[in-house]
Design a protein that fits this description.
GO terms for molecular function: cysteine-type peptidase activity. The protein has helices spanning about 20-35, 50-55, 65-75, 150-160, 170-175, 250-255, 265-275; strands at about 140-145, 165-170, 180, 190-200, 205-210, 225, 240-245, 280-284. By secondary structure, the chain is an alpha+beta fold. It has a single domain, classed as Cathepsin B, Chain A, CATH 3.90.70.10. The longest helix has 17 residues, at about 20-35. The chain starts with 20 loop residues before the first helix and ends with a strand.
């Protein structure tokens, strides 16, 4: 069972105008798994920019990629830490700004119609960061596809932590605001990848709890719920995961470093905490 110090869902990210969901869904689940496998001693935010720009076999960068290859890249090459352009922490922060997705702008500038170009790979951490690129890496171990059954996916999350799921997106998902989503009507847009971190039941309807990468103004503070057990939009067919075991050097460094107090919880974190207190929700 995951250590209670691993408060999953502390941060909802924003992929901006770049089809990098395949990288975001992966690094968010990986970050949670590192925390879980280290019993809460390490809580990294792995960089979406690292696989986006440096994995030359993961796909097409900001034009789209393959989630399974992001997990493969993690155990073969490792992934460094990184925040966002607004929150400059870690080795390689994401370079593109937050923007309004669909009709969820609420004060944000709508995402540009034209995609940003894929950034060039850099194996140097940002100026002022204390570690080198190689020293900052976290590694997974033996990436795999989770069996496409409700029970196997639940067991994987329960034993090892969040997973990345890929599914079909329609217009009515983009306009989602709350509740348990199921596709009814609307134009087909393509594939999308997200972190799935739990499940629950509301009014007799089973659902998966997932974190999107369209910032916290979208959906339920950046999260959404989608029907579980019927392979809604294919979300149970393409699920990726990996073990988070290769970070012994980070644990040694952590033991030698004075620990800082946790920062105050964000509004998003409060929202997730309330959701986690619901007896019908099973997550880590």
């Amino acid at each position: 069972m995951a250590n209670c110090r691993c408060r999953l869902g502390d941060m909802i990210r924003d992929q901006s105008s770049c089809y990098s969901c395949w990288a975001f869904g992966a690094v968010e689940a990986m970050s949670d798994r590192v925390c879980i496998h280290s019993n809460g001693r390490m809580r990294p935010r792995l960089s979406a920019l690292d696989p986006l720009s440096c994995c030359n076999y993961c796909g097409y960068g900001c034009l789209g990629g393959f989630p399974s290859m992001a997990w493969d890249f993690w155990w073969r090459n490792g992934i460094v830490t990184g925040g966002s352009v607004e929150q400059q922490f870690g080795c390689l922060p994401y370079p593109f700004p937050r923007c309004g997705h669909g009709d969820h702008s609420r004060g944000l500038t709508p995402c540009p119609a034209d995609l940003y170009p894929t950034p060039q790979c850099s194996k140097y951490c940002r100026s002022g960061y204390v570690k080198t690129y190689e020293k900052d890496k976290f590694y997974g171990n033996s990436s795999y596809n989770v069996n496409a059954t409700e029970g196997d996916i639940m067991m994987e999350i329960m034993k090892n932590g969040p997973v990345e799921a890929t599914y079909h997106v329609y217009d009515d998902f983009i306009s989602y605001k709350s509740g348990i989503y199921h596709h009814v009507i609307g134009e087909y847009y393509g594939m999308h990848a997200v972190r799935v971190l739990g499940w629950g039941v509301e009014n007799g309807v089973k659902y998966w709890l997932a974190a999107n990468s369209w910032n916290e103004l979208w959906g339920e503070y950046g999260f959404f719920r989608i029907r579980r057990g019927n392979n809604e939009c294919g979300i149970e067919s393409m699920v990726n995961a990996d073990n988070a075991e290769h970070f012994e050097h980070q644990l040694r460094e952590l033991a030698e470093t004075p620990q800082r107090r946790n920062s105050p919880r964000s509004a998003t974190r409060h929202h997730v905490t309330r959701m986690l207190s619901d007896d019908s929700l099973n997550t880590f």
